[in-house]
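Researcher: Here's a chain I'd like modeled. Treat it as a single chain, no partners, no ligands.
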Amino acid sequence: MKLICFIITCFLYVQIAASERIQVVATYPYIADIVEKIGTDRVRVIPLARGDYNPHVIIPKPSYISKLRRADLLVINGAQLEIGWLPPILKQANNGNIQPGEKGFLDLSTYIHLIDVPANVSREQGDVHPEGNPHFHLNPDNIPLIAKAITDKLCEIEPESNSLFQSNFVEFNKTWKQKMKEWEEKMKPMKGVKVVEYHKNYDYFLQKFGLIIAQTVEPLPGIPPTTKHIEHVEKVIEHEKIRFILQDVYNPQDASEYLAKKLGIKMIIFPHDIGSVKEVEGIISLYDEMVRRITQ
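Model: Modeled as a single isolated chain. Structure tokens:
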């Protein structure tokens, strides 16, 4: 009888401890992973989108609303990457604590220097983001900035765990700096290499390591390639001596495959988030795999 009471007490303790954790909703898996690394056992993190989804076009599910309704903190990528799908479900969740401008809302893009900010925006430019390229987590220099923003926000929400969050951040930052040296060393031979990418997913990564973006398979962001544009890309590849084409996991691959086969260059399926390919299980392995695929 005593054993049964002890088991029940332990179970109730675990349930209470879990319910007292900070409930965090992250729009994308890479955000969830960093939150978990900083918050450890003080947070319960739920990512909304999967890593193999097109981050621009997420189909909202009813379950997203209930997750947002229970959240203490919502962490988004920002730079309007979620603009097409998040606002309606955030409104339906009716959780005043996680609305923009409130304590339980964190927009990571506000802590980052964004590239490719257009001078003006029109429909003729395709699916252009007015605030700049939103794929900033693919520059490894930005990850510590993201981790620091998350750390500060968790400290604001739960000040009594400040020392834990700060300690976890210091440890994460130390590990990241060590990995950065490894990635930079491996990427040195790639400096100056010219590449074509399907969509402008990887501009931050390529610019960080000194690769040259010669062309995109898309004529404009979010616009499928036409026959005329593919002919233009062919000429660019031949003239500029392109080494390879970077293809994301969610856009159609037929145009890139055609170009690679016809012109005898390599097409690399390139990850963009955790879970986008089976080898990527965390933010560190995301960079490990990107570096491995582009240098092998």
